[in-house]
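[recover] target loaded
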């Protein structure tokens, strides 16, 4: 007999709780930047695998001089290098292996299936070769080097023991290579197309992806911050900024009926955007009001701007305007700090 009533509700609740628990578990196990396992998850799963079979191998590597990359070029480039590295590792490494970011620029790969030493060495070589250069969005090329080593898990009791074996080999390789040479550019191993690549990435992140024509629509809090910035600009420059408040009412000066309000506000917002300049800003102030900020204009042009928007809005209505009125209000002088 199919479950009914409370039984179905209970099963649905259990499924939702299971899904939520799975989501929380995934968040707890995942490195926020790369999407790989974090150190805690690697330790847990490797411990479980070694407890079952006492075999496998672990590859450990870190990026040489990565801190200097962050220090010199900023964390935007550094984070993108790590993200790209994580994405590529997921594609390179077999699905039955565990991949984790276990430190800032330190990574570990654990494969529970036995492999011949030559196979593991070949895998290390492929990883090292793949990341000699990393291509980022925007044409940025990063030349990198890494120190990579591996250890056999046969006989190891837990993650810490196996990781330490591989990590000690990494340390020894660095020592043999004589890291610490004074040639800064060679040590960095970084090649950017220009010194200003990081600021270009910052500008790209801050900029709008698709710029609409006309004024810039923002929520009220952002509008207020932009307005305050304009006030600061006025203190050091001969500039004006005006506010215009557009209000929709019916013929009795009451806010228009709810069933008509959304449609009329959408029309008005569209005409405000189209009939202002690209650098002007506006926001929906209330359910029947828009607030517009117009910088760098003279007082005699404010009426022209407001009337142009009113004319465009009324022009969207084919029938005579019987149900709605558009009012304008604004300071006759620019707002200044002491007003």
């Amino acid at each position: 007999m199919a479950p009914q009533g409370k039984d179905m509700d209970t099963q649905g609740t259990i499924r939702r709780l299971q899904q939520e628990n799975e989501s929380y578990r995934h968040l707890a196990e995942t490195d926020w930047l790369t999407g790989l396992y974090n150190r805690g998850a690697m330790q847990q799963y490797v411990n479980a695998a070694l407890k079952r079979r006492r075999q496998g191998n672990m590859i450990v590597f870190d990026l040489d001089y990565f801190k200097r990359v962050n220090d010199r070029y900023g964390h935007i480039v550094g984070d993108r290098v790590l993200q790209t590295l994580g994405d590529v590792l997921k594609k390179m490494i077999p699905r039955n292996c565990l991949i984790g970011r276990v430190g800032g620029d330190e990574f570990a790969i654990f494969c529970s299936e036995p492999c011949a030493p030559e196979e593991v060495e070949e895998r290390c070589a492929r990883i090292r070769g793949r990341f000699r250069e990393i291509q980022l969005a925007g044409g940025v090329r990063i030349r990198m080097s890494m120190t990579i080593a591996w250890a056999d898990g046969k006989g190891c009791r837990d993650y810490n023991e196996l990781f330490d074996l591989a990590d000690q080999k990494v340390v020894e390789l660095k020592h043999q290579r004589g890291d610490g040479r004074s040639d800064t550019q060679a040590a960095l191993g970084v090649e950017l197309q220009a010194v200003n690549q990081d600021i270009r990435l910052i500008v790209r992140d801050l900029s709008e992806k698709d710029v609409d024509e006309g004024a810039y629509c923002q929520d009220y809090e952002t509008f207020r911050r932009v307005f305050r910035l304009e006030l600061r600009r006025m203190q050091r420059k001969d500039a004006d900024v005006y506010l215009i408040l557009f209000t929709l009412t019916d013929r009795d000066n009451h806010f228009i009926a709810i069933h008509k309000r959304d449609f009329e506000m959408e029309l008005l917002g569209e005409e405000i955007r189209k009939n202002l300049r690209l650098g002007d800003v506006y926001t929906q102030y209330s359910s029947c009001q828009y607030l517009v900020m117009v910088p760098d204009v003279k007082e005699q042009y404010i009426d022209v701007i407001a009337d142009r928007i009113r004319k465009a809005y009324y022009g969207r209505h084919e029938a005579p305007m019987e149900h709605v009125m558009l009012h304008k209000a604004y300071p006759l002088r620019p707002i200044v700090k002491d007003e």
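[recover] notes: The chain is about 45% helix and 15% strand.
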